[in-house]
Predict the structure.
Amino acid sequence: MTTYADTLDYSGRATRQRKPRILERDFREHDETTVTLLRGDGYTIEQKTLLVGDWAWELREQAWLHTCWGYNRFVIERKTLADLRDTKRLTNQLFRARRQMAQEQAGGATFFVLLVEHKFDTDIKRKWTDKAIRHAKLSAQFGGVRVTDCGENEIATALDGLFIWSQKSKHEIAEGGV
């Protein structure tokens, strides 16, 4: 006699279960609110010492960034406008990131993103125009660093979106309709 439980597809269900979403956070990044929000969205946060960046994760083998471009790792350096204005420190950090990417062996490639967090510039003494901010982001992109942004206090949402984006198996816009 076949029971109802025997008719359920447990082995198929097990293969379709959500895979763990693990993010690494540099121990110097002290944003507990973001950690709490990400954990609430189902992420596991591991605190580590990252050579560069504030957040990182491994790319799955089926990810477009991995299959088409050979990237294995996604790394994010988060910056506020105040950090962006500290050009000496930012230049040093971007130099270290570029140097690390250049030294990577095949199969160990890092996709590095500079994430600028801001809504508008509230610094009265050193205020930058929107044009100046856009140009600073453009300057940062020289040498293989990608730049994106998010609103103030929207780091968790941005990290979630970038994680999902980075794990996609297809990016039609980047592929040019291929």
The mean pLDDT is 85.
